[in-house]
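Hi L., both proteins are below.
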Amino acid sequence: MSAYLRSLLLGTAQAVRTAVLDHARAGLPRHVQGDSPGGDAQFDIDEVAEDAVWKHLTEHAREPVAVYTEDNTLRSTGPDPRYVLLIDPIDGTRPASAGLEMATVSIAAAPMSEEPTLADVCAAHLLELRGGNRIYADDELEAPLEWHGYDWTLPRLSRTTEVARMFWSLEFNGHPMRLMTDAYDHLVDASANTGGVFVFNSATFSISRIITGQLDAYVDIGNRVLRDHPGTEADFRRVGRGNILHLFPYDIAAAVYLARRARVVVTDAYGASLSPTPLLAVDPSAQRSCVAASTPELHRTLLDTIRW
């Protein structure tokens, strides 16, 4: 089954990329045209990508498959699907809308059940929308990863252990700037000159850059800040236009699976496993934080030095 599943994942991602690039060539002005069920703003390009996912799967899936996407939640191409595909058609909508490279198609597959979790993911695929580079793996693949388009062997993890030398990315969408500054402005100050600090607005792109060796770490701590300090909820809802916008399961399911196979240290912001994360939910209780690093030492340092 893995060969068929691989073909379905790769084909679906490529269909999205083709549709998105065609849309970009049309040169239409970008605009927001509603919210996803989780409350995130949906741009015109998101609708193009969502349509491409459904069209490809209904035309090419040889047997029924359940599909959970950011904008349409759960549906199925037929009765009694064996697998559920958790798809973020564009993780990095804002970079994609700007024509930048920090955006991917993210697809994770798991056996269909009543309550599948991230631990059930058995295959995953990330495709870079701009350049077409891709990373894939499934449970039957002997090598850690399959990749295409990179000029070096993957995984290629850095050995960085020092904050001052780390190249890292962090998240601000739906995260009040003041709270994030309070939490890690000292880490930004320490690393901005002798390392590098980036905001990509794409969890999958950020985590995959650790796999490629281009980054040393990624942090999205909003969900822990809210859980530790419930009084901040009004602040999070203010910048989320009434919603809590932390890491949704579809944001990280594929990237976390691939990162684990690459031996990236990836947990929530408490240092706990992300495996119990429910795949088919978007409410605040299902949302997560994430700290990922290329070395255990750097991961521990981040957990110990962020001002919780």
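That was the first. Here is the second:
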Amino acid sequence: MKFNSTKPSFARQLDAQDDLSPFRDQFVIQDPTLVYLDGNSLGRLPQATPDHMKYAIEHQWGERLIRGWNDGWIKKPAEVGAKIAEIIGARPDEVIVCDTTSINLYKLALAALQARPERKTILSDALNFPSDLYILQGICDLMGEEHRLDLIPSDQSLSVPLENCRERIGDDTALVTLSHVSFKSAFMYDMEKVTHLAHQAGALTLWDLSHSAGAVPLELHDWDVDLAVGCTYKYLNGGPGAPAFLYVRRDLQNKLIPPIWGWFGAQAPFNFDLNFNPARDLTRFQISTPHMLSLLAVEPALEIILKAGIKNLRQKSIQQSEYLIYLAREFLFPLGYELGSPTDASERGSHVTLQHPEAYRICRALIEPQETDIRVIPDFREPDNVRLGIAPLYTSFLDLHQAVRRMEQIVKEKEYLQYSEEYLSVT
């Protein structure tokens, strides 16, 4: 993708030509001087969500009280899951919303290991999100010394070549579990090919979709993916701490035994049987009463995504990330910045990472400027990564232009020296 101008007028021209630009107005943007590039950590608030939640609180809870469960609450985990299923290429009965990403990962990983008792190896990679690795380490500790977690090394902390996966998947591999899009570099696996490699070796696959659901097209069912988890507060814009989702391919749902037996996973929860009898479908992976208010808050943004179309969002994401990298080459690379993401768009998710030795203080200067009205919110990831999240529903080309020019100014004028090197609690 070629660009021929670094002027802000060209960015405005790209915005004017963007068919998706009207969707920006469907999100709350209270400060027009704020450039928000952290939608890959927490998505913006949809305009429709406050009224949606007001109705949920005042009518569904306030007026209907306990009757709300029979009015439709009880079906919401599956109904909202079906909408997510449409976004990630699954069947409606293959996705359910419940718990957190880490808890869902624990449930599905342990169920997968129990389904392959003769195999003792979990395969992941050095790019995976640490929380995922902690969960897997804890499972190995629980299962005993025979079980082990094997990590595929990365290529300069940016990517993992397919050949590296092929070499590490073996006869002892029970489960291959990876983040589809890496949280630091945005490296994106070819999910279909890796899943095929795992299946050839007799292993199951479990994917973390936290940085890809709502950002890149997926075809979980057609690619024969076994299991997946993901969060709803990033590109799905469900709000802070919104409940996660899990996917189990239809033919596996009756074969896998959930490791946590909770009453909402029972076949007839309101029979109150003293012995657990798991549901015959995906609901067996529920544990307890759904977090209804936070679950309801997920709905409005899903409708926006479905209307915009995930393929359209991906097309714009690629165009915007290419434009951002183009600007970085012109303005930032001469100042010591380096690209911390794959150059090939087919191997890159919807955020771009730029590396600099002063990355943390650059982020502080972007977020808390002392001499300009323009504020930019990215995020920092150890040791030297500035992550710039592109959420095509509301990120504009002008946002990207302003962010790059501020990053240029901060280093050129050494503004970062005015900020402490001491980390804040959340980076």
